C-alpha cells in the first residue's frame, strides 16, 4: 500500500468553480426560503400554504440537486466508477422524489382553491421537463447502472444521455424562471413595477438560478475537467466488450 502513488490533484481552477457553484446553490435555497417565509407566509401541508411547497421543492430538486448530480463525475475523479455512478443516480433519484412532492403540492393546492391546472406556459414546460427527466433517469439506470446493455449500445447512448442531461438542467432553470414570474404576477401585479422588496428578492432569486446554471454548465463543458478513466476501468471496459460483443480485447 505504501508503494501506491497518491491520486493526481484536481485540474487547476476546478475546485474553485465547484465551490462557487455550491455557494450559489446554498444562497439560492436561502433566498427562496426567505421569500416564502417573509412574504408568502411559509410552508405547510394541507393548508392554504401548501402551494408554497411547490417552488421550494422544484428549486431544491430540479435545480440544486440536479446540478450537483451533474457535477459528480467532475468532483469524484479518482473514486471507483461504480460508486460514482451510484451517487449520480441517487442524487437524480432524490431530485425526482422531491420534485414529485412539489408537483403533488401544486395540484392539491389548486384543487382546494378551485384553480384550473396545466393552462400556463410554466406548467407545460415544467411538466414536460419532469416527465423527460424521469425518463432520462430510468434510461440512465438501465444503460449504465444495471447490467444488460451491450458495449456498443452503451457507446451509442452515452452522448444522448449527456446531451439530454444538460438540456434538462437548462429547461429546469427556465421553468423555474417562468414560475417565479407567474407567482409575482399573481400576487403583486399591482405593485411589482414599483420595485417593492418582494419583487426585488424574487428577481434576485432568478438571477441566482441563472448564475448557478452558468457555473455548473461551465464546469461540465470544460474538456480538460472531464473525469479521466482509471486504468482498471479501461481493463474492465475491454473485458465487458469482449463478453458482450464477442470480440477479443485486441480486436
Automatic annotation (TrEMBL):
<feature type="transmembrane region" description="Helical">
    <location>
        <begin position="12"/>
        <end position="36"/>
    </location>
</feature>
<feature type="transmembrane region" description="Helical">
    <location>
        <begin position="161"/>
        <end position="180"/>
    </location>
</feature>
<keyword id="KW-0479">Metal-binding</keyword>
<keyword id="KW-0813">Transport</keyword>
<dbReference type="GO" id="GO:0016491">
    <property type="term" value="F:oxidoreductase activity"/>
</dbReference>
<dbReference type="InterPro" id="IPR006593">
    <property type="entry name" value="Cyt_b561/ferric_Rdtase_TM"/>
</dbReference>
<dbReference type="GO" id="GO:0046872">
    <property type="term" value="F:metal ion binding"/>
</dbReference>
<feature type="transmembrane region" description="Helical">
    <location>
        <begin position="56"/>
        <end position="76"/>
    </location>
</feature>
<dbReference type="GO" id="GO:0005765">
    <property type="term" value="C:lysosomal membrane"/>
</dbReference>
<keyword id="KW-0349">Heme</keyword>
<keyword id="KW-0968">Cytoplasmic vesicle</keyword>
<feature type="transmembrane region" description="Helical">
    <location>
        <begin position="127"/>
        <end position="149"/>
    </location>
</feature>
<dbReference type="InterPro" id="IPR043205">
    <property type="entry name" value="CYB561/CYBRD1-like"/>
</dbReference>
<keyword id="KW-0408">Iron</keyword>
<keyword id="KW-1133">Transmembrane helix</keyword>
<keyword id="KW-0249">Electron transport</keyword>
<feature type="transmembrane region" description="Helical">
    <location>
        <begin position="200"/>
        <end position="220"/>
    </location>
</feature>
<comment type="function">
    <text>Transmembrane reductase that uses ascorbate as an electron donor in the cytoplasm and transfers electrons across membranes to reduce monodehydro-L-ascorbate radical in the lumen of secretory vesicles. It is therefore involved the regeneration and homeostasis within secretory vesicles of ascorbate which in turn provides reducing equivalents needed to support the activity of intravesicular enzymes.</text>
</comment>
<keyword id="KW-0472">Membrane</keyword>
<dbReference type="Pfam" id="PF03188">
    <property type="entry name" value="Cytochrom_B561"/>
</dbReference>
<dbReference type="GO" id="GO:0042584">
    <property type="term" value="C:chromaffin granule membrane"/>
</dbReference>
<protein>
    <recommendedName>
        <fullName>Transmembrane ascorbate-dependent reductase CYB561</fullName>
    </recommendedName>
</protein>
<keyword id="KW-1278">Translocase</keyword>
<keyword id="KW-0812">Transmembrane</keyword>
<feature type="domain" description="Cytochrome b561">
    <location>
        <begin position="20"/>
        <end position="221"/>
    </location>
</feature>
<feature type="transmembrane region" description="Helical">
    <location>
        <begin position="88"/>
        <end position="107"/>
    </location>
</feature>
Amino acid at each position: 500500500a505504501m508503494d501506491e502513488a497518491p491520486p493526481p490533484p484536481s485540474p487547476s481552477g476546478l475546485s474553485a468553480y465547484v465551490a462557487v457553484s455550491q455557494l450559489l446553490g446554498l444562497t439560492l435555497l436561502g433566498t427562496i426560503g426567505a421569500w416564502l417565509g417573509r412574504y408568502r407566509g411559509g410552508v405547510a401541508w394541507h393548508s392554504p400554504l401548501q402551494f408554497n411547497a411547490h417552488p421550494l421543492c422544484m428549486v431544491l430538486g430540479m435545480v440544486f440537486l440536479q446540478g450537483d448530480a451533474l457535477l459528480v463525475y467532475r468532483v469524484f475523479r479518482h473514486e471507483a466508477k461504480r460508486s460514482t455512478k451510484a451517487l449520480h443516480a441517487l442524487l437524480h433519484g432524490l431530485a425526482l422524489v422531491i420534485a414529485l412532492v412539489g408537483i403533488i403540492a401544486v395540484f392539491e393546492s389548486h384543487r382546494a382553491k378551485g384553480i384550473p391546472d396545466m393552462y400556463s406556459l410554466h406548467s407545460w414546460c415544467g411538466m414536460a421537463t419532469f416527465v423527460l427527466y424521469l425518463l432520462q433517469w430510468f434510461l440512465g439506470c438501465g444503460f449504465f447502472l444495471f447490467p444488460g446493455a451491450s458495449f456498443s449500445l452503451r457507446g451509442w447512448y452515452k452522448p444522448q444521455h449527456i446531451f439530454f442531461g444538460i438540456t434538462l438542467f437548462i429547461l429546469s432553470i427556465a421553468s423555474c424562471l417562468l414560475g417565479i414570474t407567474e407567482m409575482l404576477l399573481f400576487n403583486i401585479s399591482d405593485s411589482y413595477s414599483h420595485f417593492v422588496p418582494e419583487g426585488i428578492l424574487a428577481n434576485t432569486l432568478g438571477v441566482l438560478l441563472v448564475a448557478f446554471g452558468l457555473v455548473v454548465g461551465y464546469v461540465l463543458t470544460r474538456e480538460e475537467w472531464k473525469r479521466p478513466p482509471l486504468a482498471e476501468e479501461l481493463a474492465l471496459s475491454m473485458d465487458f466488450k469482449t463478453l458482450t460483443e464477442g470480440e477479443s480485447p485486441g480486436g
